[in-house]
Amino acid sequence: MSLLITNIKQLIQIRDSGIRKVSGKDMKILPIIENAFVLIENDTIIDFGEMKDTVGVIADQTIDASGRIVLPAWCDSHTHIVYAGNREQEFVDRINGLSYEEIAERGGGILNSAEKLQNTSEDELYNQSIERIKSVMKLGTGAIEIKSGYGLSLESELKMLRVIRRIKQNISIKVRATFLGAHAVPKEYESDRKRYIDLIVEKMLPAVANDKLADYIDVFCEKGYFSLADTERILSAGKQYNLIPKIHVNQFNSFGGIELGVKHNALSVDHLEELKLEDIDALKGSDTIPVALPSCSYFLSIPYTPARQLIDAGIPLALATDYNPGSTPSGNMNFVVSTACIKMRMTPEEAINAATLNGAYAMGIEDQYGSVTKGKKANLIITKKVDNYNYLPYAFGDNHIDKVIINGEVI
Ligand code: NIG
Ligand code: FE
Q1: Were both Cys, which of 154, 243, 325, 329 would link to 238 (CB 3.0–4.6 Å)?
Q2: CA-to-CA distance for 34 and 51, rounded, in angstroms?
């Protein structure tokens, strides 16, 4: 089955194979072709170029993209999209004056979601989660990372990870799974936190690895959650099962988590709303990519990750949603890209690079996703009629997407 997309006003993010991520000044460059075509065979991009070069090209199906932009589907490298119920009451509590941290101290927050998830059957959890997956696919997400971390017991962490596996089996977008047993310390372990970390290391990790339920390991390295020493212990244990770190750091406090992540060859360090110069230095020259989550900053009214400082220091940056019931009840990558431009002073080129190729790198899937490249998966967004890609982040809040193509098929 072949599909030819013709008369594309701007074909965005065309890359040769082998480019794994873009850093620093290179993030301002977004390669495009005007008046372009893309040829897809089954689930793969096999050719693209200028319209004048389509002479003689035939395909089973043609889509005329006159006046439209075509770009790679978004790569959302940080989500907690598998969860039960919601936390709209905490949203109202915050409006009425409580902080995110105060709500957590009262047993709300992550522990609230954990209780809900523990009391939800595996089928019901799957049903709630797959609906969210379908809706983010319509918003242009073509690859997604999903974390556990609302189970917080052996049984419920495994339940969450099995739901992620079931999503992977039933959905056409690429799914990567991350084990986040160290998301919060359950109440019953409050007086002996070490016992919970023992449980993670001695029981959860071997079970997760045995069933091959995760690609990555995550820790919420933050005051009141997991310390540097805790994080070090958990990441070292994960390494024995070949679980690569992707960690939550510097959301509220900067105290060395980034340096620790780099030391453990983390694929990504995520959040970074609070950043010191030594954090930036730790990232320089490493293979660890920082991931900014502007929808979380927006929703919690906390600082935005200082993207300019990172990019101007020559570092790469990825953008993701952080979709979760507490700090970011939204999986809309279009909003993320707009907000990055509006609030973090990223140029549209930088933001699109960060949400496509660099997002793919932050999930370790850049060889197959994140750019319009011959041989990569045909995961593409076709916009409504739009003259220039700058319009996409500029006209924020509107849905500019006409069609989403996943593995060569219009969904
Ligand atoms: O990335 N910060 C830690 N974890 C999530 C929020 C979890 C929650 O509030 O449920 C985050 O923001
Ligand atoms: Fe998160």
Answers
A1: 243
A2: 9
